[in-house]
Design a protein that fits this description.
Layout lengths: L3 E8 L2 E8 L2 E8 L5 H9 L1 H7 L8 H12 L6 H12 L5 H5 L3 E7 L2 E7 H6 L5 E8 L2 H15 L9 E5 L8 E5 L1 H4 L4 E5 L8 H6 L5 H12 L3 E6 L5 H12 L6 E5 L12 E5 L1 E3 L2 E3 L1 H9 L6 E4 L6 H10 L3 E7 L3 H9 L7 H5 L3 E10 L2 E15 L2 E11 L4 E3 L3 H7 L1 H9 L4 H12 L5
Parallel strand pairs: 10-16, 10-17, 11-12, 11-15, 15-16
Antiparallel strand pairs: 1-2, 2-3, 4-5, 4-9, 5-6, 7-8, 8-9, 13-14, 17-18, 18-19, 19-20
Helix pairs in contact: 1-4, 3-4, 10-18, 12-13
Length: 452
């Protein structure tokens, strides 16, 4: 494909170029220097020797591989980096290895034979209409896809077969802990599917989110006070809108390490920080033994967690336990699929969740994330923050922050307006004996942490 090179960088020994021609993009990968057929042949011939010669320990380092490669292949030092790259690829995830190591690749998908497709962070930022783009990495046959499916499933400790044609699992922590979704040809019409949603191993900070215009310093100050007052925050939005990214930033930025925090997830994405008093529970299904989020949420209440409970994504019965935790005075932080605060409330009150009006009223606020096109750029942003306020025997939504679409500003950007808008913040301050002047000062001081 001829066109303009938009981005160029290296991942190990691989040179990556993102090329644009008219409205099409291509992810192009090449090795430098180009490995000779002899070197590739040597690695394939000695694959078993290299594998069995590696030391028996939990974490094998690059130095371990280098020493074995030198002995097994008998090559000069100048070819060691290239050989190391090829051996790692052979021992780990084959044709997918470079894509898994590329920090700009967010998702990977294969549907039958043909090119592997990726979601690339830089392309998404550049073009709001873009989604997946093809790579020059090609799967030649359906048999190759099926073999790769089985290999990935094995790495994740699961199996895919005619009797189990849809598999959702997670790669080992040492391989990144990425989510995998495999669908067999029985379901896809002879086009077996592999999708990998890459896990972000580093939590993005509140400061970075403010720099990216996801939220503002004053919105951050408001959410800080909500969580420190043990209020409950529901982060809603469509898939891939940045809900989990925001949750991780709020959790790691605002919650003390000394608090007992229980994190409940289907797939491990939120790591308890080193040195913290936090624990993560993961759902499990082995045969008839099913440990779901509902069971884990009940377990969390018995674990002396009396400050904050975190549910990676609320979908069903676990919301009842979440409501019980809020009723006991605990804070809660969770994500939820929904396009508006009104939709979130309707879904919380409907099957299979079935929360009562009173239980929904215990939620302090709903943060709505959106994916938008702003001046041709793809942005993940907080569009609005709404409080849930009880009024008699019903609940109403009260807008605290809203996005000015013309300037892309999340307003208000001052403490006085926040206090004027927020009934729940005023109620919490009154309970604690904090007057409006002191509350105003607190908000300003907290916001100063991120104001430039």
């Amino acid at each position: 494909m001829k066109g303009k090179v938009l981005f160029e960088y290296y991942v190990g020994a691989s040179r990556i170029r993102i090329v644009r021609s008219e409205n099409s993009y291509l992810y192009m990968l090449s090795l430098e220097p180009e490995p000779s057929p002899e070197l590739i042949g040597k690695i394939k011939e000695n694959h078993e020797v290299i594998l069995t010669s590696l030391p028996l320990k939990n974490e094998i380092t690059e130095n371990d591989i280098v020493e074995v490669v030198k002995d097994a292949l008998g090559i000069s030092n100048e070819y060691i980096p290239l050989a190391l790259h090829l051996v790692k690829k052979e021992l780990k995830y084959k044709v997918l290895q470079e894509l898994l190591e590329d920090p700009y690749v967010e998702d990977i998908t294969i549907v039958g034979s043909g090119p592997i497709w990726v979601r690339h962070k830089k392309v998404l930022e550049l073009d709001s209409e873009a989604d997946y783009i093809p790579t020059n990495l090609v799967i030649d046959s359906l048999e190759e896809v099926l073999e790769l499916q089985k290999y990935i499933a094995q790495k994740a400790g699961v199996h895919i077969s005619m009797s189990n044609p849809i598999v959702d699992a997670q790669l080992p922590e040492e391989d990144g802990g990425h989510r995998i979704h495999l669908v067999g040809p029985e379901i896809t019409g002879r086009k077996p599917e592999i999708t990998i949603r890459k896990r972000i191993n580093r939590a993005i900070s509140i400061k970075e989110l403010i720099t990216q215009n996801v939220l503002t310093a004053y919105a951050a100050a408001y959410l800080y006070l909500v969580l420190r007052a043990r209020g409950s925050v529901v982060i809603a939005g469509p898939p891939s809108s940045g809900k989990t990214t925001l949750l991780r930033a709020l959790l790691e930025g605002f919650i003390p390490r000394s608090w007992k925090v229980v994190i409940i997830e289907d797939t491990a994405e939120i790591d308890p920080p080193p040195g913290s008093n936090w624990v993560r529970y993961i759902t499990m299904e082995k045969g008839k033994n099913v440990i779901d989020q509902f069971i884990l949420a009940k377990a969390a209440l018995r674990a002396s967690a009396n400050k904050v409970i975190v549910i990676g994504e609320t979908r069903g019965a676990e919301a009842q336990v979440l409501a019980q935790a809020m009723n006991l005075g605990m804070g809660a932080l969770t994500t939820f699929h929904g396009g508006s605060a009104e939709e979130v409330i309707v879904r919380l009150k409907s099957p299979p969740i079935n929360l009562s009006e009173y239980q929904v009223a215990m939620i302090w606020c709903i943060v709505l994330m959106k994916i938008i096109d702003f001046k041709g750029k793809f942005l993940r942003i907080i569009d609005e923050i709404d409080e849930i306020v009880p009024e008699g025997d019903k609940i109403v939504l009260r807008r605290i922050f809203s996005r000015d679409s013309s300037r892309m500003k999340l307003l208000p950007e001052n403490s006085e307006e926040i206090i004027k808008n927020s009934i729940r913040l005023n109620e919490a301050a009154k309970r604690l004996g904090i007057d409006k002047s002191s509350l105003n000062y607190m908000i300003k001081e907290i916001a100063k942490r991120w104001l430039v």
